[in-house]
Amino acid sequence: MAPQRILLNLGLDLALAALALPAALWLAAPGAWPPAGWWPGGLAGSLLAFAAAALPLRLPRQYWRYVGLPDLLPVLGASLAAALIFWAGLLLLGAWRPPNIAFPVLHAGVLAALAGGARLIGRLQSAHRAGPVSDVPPQPVLLAGGGDSADLFIRALIAQRAPGYRVEGILAPRARQRGRRILGVPILGTVDQAGTVLDELRAEGRLPALLVLADPGLAGGALEALLDAADRHGVPVRRAPRPTALDPATARAQFARKAGRKLDLRPVSIEELLDRPQVPLDREGMARLVQGRRVLVTGAGGTIGSELARQIAALGPANLTLLDHGEFALYEIDLELSESHPGVPRRPVLADVRDEARLRRLMEEIRPELVFHAAALKHVPMVENDPLEGLLTNALGTRLIADAARANGCRAMVFISTDKAVNPTSVMGASKRLAEMYCQALDMQARQGMASGSGGMRCVTVRFGNVLGSTGSVVPLFRRQLERGGPLTVTHPDMRRYFMTVREAVGLVLQASVIGAEDFYSKDGADQPPELREGGIFVLDMGKPVKIVDLARRMIRLAGLQPDEDVEIRFTGLRPGEKLFEELFHGQEPPRPTGFPGLLVATPRTADAALVGRAIDEVSSAARGGQARLALAGLARLVPEFEHAPNTPAAGRA
Asked: Which residue positions does the secretion signal occupy (predicted)?
């Protein structure tokens, strides 16, 4: 606050203190008035007493226009302290004093009433003065979210001279809140009762023009049910600006100032709709795994790799090496981490995971203790067009990273796999399955070595489905198509996929890393639980698969449009290598629990690491020689469940 503003506030408070003294004297003893000579010293004493009490409590620094209950407590304290100081001064000096011994209490009350009342008047005068005047009537809205979230939104509207919205009712989180009011707005029901409340409002002719989500935590299944209820009545849904995470008084002030200029409501995103409640994670275990260790992340510029880099940087590694072959993607994540975690030593490295000599030199130099291998070619049609590139990156690249890490004393390598590796019909899926086989074989070798006392690098494989918003995924594609006005292209009306947010997926990857990297035997010699004893592939609990056509329809509705009326949905047919349904488990690897929410483990299907390694080398040699038919035949021998889609162009290449 500017010094001149502080002095003005102090001057106003002292003027109010000067008015409070005669008012308190009259209330204490109307017939007993002090002599004329008493007033100069009495007024000066009352002002000094108030200043002595107000300055330590920082009363002159208060914003009167944003005053709230927490701000009135210092006013009350200063008033009481000033009255006691003034009374004590009268007693010590032996000056005239009113005969009523209740004078200090009355003096404090009058001071508090004048100082507090002036602040409340300032707060009321500041309302309805932000923003331009408009003749457009405000839109009636129904607000979803109780407590502070509803309070902040309504106050933001009050702060506008011509608010664009008028809150007609509130949907609160709990049933016991029904019938109560927040700033005069009635609570009509709960969020779960949105359909019933909208039915009632329609019957009364008061259907809102908009349903506004004020609660930032409203997501997942509860949000989907709310959207369905709004869709039935043709009521658009928008989300309110997210309030700042400060104390309530400051939050209200900042939110009101921001909203007073323009209250922007944004559409609900598909990520919010499909998001699920965060499962409890072993954050302490993650910190123990990462903190103070040298960490390498491959594919650090990609969707999964960059989120891994963010979450790992927050856990305090000794240093973090970011490896990617894409210059701009690597630059972006390095720049982001330099701003968000400047204290974490890091090194961006431009390299190809297929370059054996480069990887060997790098590993010898940085000697990572943990490697998170996210680098891959993952777009199914693109890999079908160039299958040899997919084999070299996904299978050979994984083997080279694992071998170089193991040779340089790495404690654990975490390999990011995909549900497309289960009963694959694409080269991408089969190449990832081949990489899974090698990592599983290395992990079993390490576990057997630990049982005999020799140890070895643990290989943790984590398999999951599609990540919302990842590069090349369906959600960004639908967004681009919506921006152009459609149509939205879906390959088949029955196509289903598993979806997960990148934040949730990476959190569970780190959780699996903690479990998989634990010692095979505990310190007291007791075995791990049987379901974890033999290792295997960790599989993220992806929930229920989502029909892609339903996803397209929901995104159209979230944009405020109607499917098949405003925006066409066009079916284009399966692309090379695609399946209608993805699977998370093969028939010979039944799922087992891990005891950790969100994580399952697939029974390992293992082979000798040396045999798998030689087989990968043979396939890679054919791929490097441009012998597509020979390379794919070798891949089919190694992954017998691989049934290449018949419309794959690569199948007929020499």
From this structure: none
